[in-house]
Amino acid sequence: ATIFSLGWIAALWLLVTRKKKRTGVYIVDFACYKPDDKLKCSAELSEWFAKRLGVYTEKTMEFFKKVYLKSGVGDETYAPPAMFHHPNADLSWKQARAEAELVIFGAVDELLAKTGIKSKDIGILVVNSSCFNPTPSLSSMIVNHYKMGTDIRSFNLGGMGCSAGIIAIDLAKDLLGMHPNTYALVVSTENITHNLYLGNNRPMLVTNCLFRVGGAAILLSNHPCHSPGGAAAGKYELLHTVRIHNGGDDKAYGCITQEADSDGVLGITLTKHIMVAAADALKKNLTKLGPLVLPIGEQLHFAANVIARSVFKLDRKPYIPDFKLAFDHFLLHAGGRAVVDELEKSLRLGEEKMEACRMTLHRFGNTSSSCVWYELAYLEAKGRVRYGDRLWQLGVGSGFKCNSAVWRAIRDIDRPKSMNPWLDCIDEYPLEVP
C-alpha cells in the first residue's frame, strides 16, 4: 500500500512539474498579403486570360464557366502579375519566383511594421509552400532578403498541401518549446504562376478556377505579454494542435496528386474520392480533438451513444457532438463551395459560424494554407473577437491530411484601423453569394 501511495505521489509530482515547465505559444500578430487592385481578376477577365493562352478547347472553356458558377469565388480575387503581361502571359520560373517574393515580402514587411520587431530578433523560421520549391529555398530567400542571423533555425515545408499552414504552426510550437525567449516566424503561401494547368484534362482544371494569389505571415512567441524585442502584448494563445495523416489509405493518398496528363502537361489531379477522404480524415481529427475541447456533458453523451451502438447493438444514429459548445469562432479551410458546404453539414454549423469562411472564399478565393488567416483577419475587422474566445482553425489537404489548431484570445481584439486586408470592403460583408 505504501509503494502504491508513493507511486501516485510520484505520478502527481510529474504532472505538476511538467505543467509548470510547459512553454506557452502565443501569436504576437499576423499579416495577410493583399495584392494591388490592378491584379484583381473577375470571372470575365479569367475567361479572357484563358482564351489568350490558346491551349484550351471550347469544351474546356464551357467547363470553366460551369465551375465558376458553382465555386463561391467572387470577382475581386487576385491573379499573379505574370498573367497581365502583354502581349502574352509569362509563366516562366522567373515569374513564379517574382510572385513568391511579392507575396511573401509583402506579408512579412507588414508584419514587421505591425509588431515593431527587427528581423534579427527572429530565431525560428518556418515556411510552407506545397508545389513551388525553388533552390535556394523560399526560407533561404527570406533569410537573405531580411539579413537574418546566421544562427536562425530555418525550415522549408513542401508538398504538404493546403493543411500545411497548421503543420508549420505545430513545428514552430515544438521549436519554441525547446528554445525559450525567441520569436518564430511562420509564412504560409502557394504559387499560382507555377501551378497554372495548361491542358484539357477535366480533373486537373478545377484548381485553375479556385486558387488565387495570397499568403500570410505569423509571428509567434513563447511569452504571453511581451517578447525579447519588447513588442506589444500578444493576441492569442495556442491551446491544442491535432494532426491526422491518412496516407496509409491508397485512395486517400491518391485523391490529390501532382502529375502530368496524357500530353505531358503538369497539373494537380483532383479525384472524386476527395470528399470521402476529407470526411474520413475529419472524423478522425474530431475523435482526437473532442476530448480536449468539448464540455464533459457532450463527451458523456457521445460515449453513451457509442456504447449503445457497439456494445448493446441498439439501432441508434451516431451522435455528432455539438462543437459550437467548444468554439466561439470557426476558421475552416475555404477550399471551394463544395468543401465549405460539406464542412457546414458535417459539423452542423449554421450560416453565422461559416460566415468568415464563405466570405473569404468569395473575396480572396482559395489561397491554400493561408486562407484560415484571412478568415481570422475578417473576424478582427468585424470586431468580433473578445477576451477568452476560442477559435478553431481547420486545414485539409493532400496526403490526405486533416489538421486542427485551437487558439484562445488573451485580450479583446479591437477593430484595426490599418494593415488589414478587409478594411476597404468589410462593411459590404457579409453578402449573399449567388
Structure, described:
Helix content is 41%, strand content 18%. With 434 residues, the chain is of the alpha+beta class. It has 2 domains: 25-226, 3-Layer(aba) Sandwich (Peroxisomal Thiolase, Chain A, domain 1), CATH 3.40.47.10; 236-428, Peroxisomal Thiolase, Chain A, domain 1. The chain has a 9-stranded mixed β-sheet, sandwiched between helices. A two-stranded antiparallel sheet has the order 2-3. α4 (93-115) crosses α5 (138-146) and α13 (351-364) packs across α14. The chain is globular, with a radius of gyration of 22 Å. The termini are far apart. Residues 1-21 and 227-232 have low confidence and may be disordered.
Features:
434 residues, alpha+beta, Peroxisomal Thiolase, Chain A, domain 1, 9-stranded mixed sheet, two-stranded antiparallel sheet, 14 helices, globular
CATH topology (level 3) name of the largest domain: Peroxisomal Thiolase, Chain A, domain 1
**Can you count the beta strands?**
13
Helix content: 40-55%
What's the CATH superfamily of the largest domain, by name?
Thiolase/Chalcone synthase
Shape: globular
Structural class determined from secondary elements: alpha+beta
Strand order of the largest sheet: 5-4-6-7-1-8-13-12-11
The SSE string, one letter per element, is: HEEHHEHEHEHEHHEEHEEHHEHHHEE
Largest sheet: 9 strands, mixed
Q: Average pLDDT, to the nearest integer? A: 91
Distance from N terminus to C terminus (CA atoms, Å) equals: 70 Å
Please work out how many helical segments DSSP would assign: 14
Number of domains: 2
Low-confidence stretches: 1-21, 227-232
What is the alpha-carbon Rg in Å?
22 Å
Work out the strand percent.
15-25%
Question: Any idea what the CATH architecture of the largest domain is?
Answer: 3-Layer(aba) Sandwich
Text of the CATH class of the largest domain: Alpha Beta
